[in-house]
């Protein structure tokens, strides 16, 4: 397999997805360069086109090229009863088995670039076959990865099954991506992988997620329809008690808006707006969207929790008192 042949034992990231005319596997060894393979093959055909390419993970006009290389090969005399999904799933399985991967990306991609969206029937077939492969009795060992990025449909049982295929001792961060989906979370939050993970990045809407379900996370980025002031205060109190440098939360409100006065009324300190002094132009621009910045003392006198409230966002960061202007995560939620 090409990815195994050319890659070191440790990968930065590995992604699998399918699109209208091809299936897609991409990976990065170091996070700087992304390699991709497109598989073009239809049922009933004995030939397959494979397109290899490499691109920088970040394109900087005038400093690098959008594409490092691109080449195609053609394979003949293949089983006409196979299609591109057979090959991409097989290679994905081999890569997961033979390579250590920091981040596994399922049903999504590493580079944010255009791909023709697959027909819903093809997408469902891909998900079904991938799920069967990952949860089959032949899968003896759990997958070891630090970050799982998952874009799936609404079936919570399937999502929970996928989570269980990852070794909870290694899994540190969960990323759930699908802005148009609403998930039932009860089955998911019961998994050992959810309970033991330390970071949560969640763009999907959750129907039944309670504050108690994510209190253990030290870093949270979530989309919410709305968030009651008492629940936000509970989050703030939780992060104050954690007293952990670098801990952070960010809530993006999808329907309601943070009511500044009602939020301030829940605080057990006198409201005191102390904006950060942005040291860079971009941080200065981003800081302008903030309506109120409250600083909470922690038991460690060297640390402070900075809570920022904007029109559609509330977020906070545990910073060093002496370095608040640099460490407060103003960019969170905007530059990701």
TrEMBL record:
Residues 137-266 form the DUF38 domain. It comes from the Eukaryota. InterPro entries: DUF38/FTH_CAE_spp, FB224. This is DUF38 domain-containing protein. It comes from Caenorhabditis briggsae.
């Amino acid at each position: 397999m090409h990815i195994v042949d050319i890659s070191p034992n440790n990968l930065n990231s590995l992604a699998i997805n399918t699109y209208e005319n091809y299936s897609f596997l991409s990976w990065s060894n170091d996070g700087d360069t992304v390699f991709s393979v497109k598989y073009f093959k239809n049922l009933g055909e004995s030939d397959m086109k494979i397109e290899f390419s490499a691109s920088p993970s970040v394109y900087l006009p005038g400093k690098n090229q959008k594409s490092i290389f691109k080449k195609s090969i053609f394979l003949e005399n293949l089983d006409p009863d196979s299609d591109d999904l057979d090959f991409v799933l097989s290679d994905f399985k081999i890569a997961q088995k033979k390579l250590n991967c920091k981040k596994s990306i399922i049903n999504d991609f590493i580079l944010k670039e255009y791909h023709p969206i697959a027909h819903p029937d093809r997408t469902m077939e891909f998900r079904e076959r991938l799920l069967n492969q990952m949860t089959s009795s032949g899968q003896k060992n759990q997958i070891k990865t630090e970050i799982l990025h998952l874009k799936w449909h609404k079936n919570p049982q399937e999502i929970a099954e996928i989570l269980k295929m990852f070794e909870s001792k290694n899994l540190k961060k969960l990323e759930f991506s699908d802005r148009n989906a609403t998930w039932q979370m009860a089955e998911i939050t019961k998994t050992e992988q959810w309970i033991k993970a330390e970071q949560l990045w969640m763009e999907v809407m959750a129907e039944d997620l309670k504050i108690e379900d994510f209190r253990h996370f030290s870093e949270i980025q979530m989309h919410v329809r709305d968030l009651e002031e008492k629940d936000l205060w509970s989050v703030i109190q939780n992060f104050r008690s954690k007293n952990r440098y670098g801990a952070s939360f960010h809530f993006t409100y999808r329907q309601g808006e943070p009511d500044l006065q009602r939020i301030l009324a829940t605080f057990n300190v006198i409201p005191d707006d102390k904006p950060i002094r942005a040291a860079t132009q971009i941080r200065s621009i981003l800081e302008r969207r903030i309506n109120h910045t409250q600083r909470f003392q922690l038991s460690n006198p060297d640390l402070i929790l900075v809570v920022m409230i904007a029109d559609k966002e509330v977020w906070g960061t545990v910073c060093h008192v002496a370095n608040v202007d640099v460490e407060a995560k103003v960019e969170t939620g905007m530059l990701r």
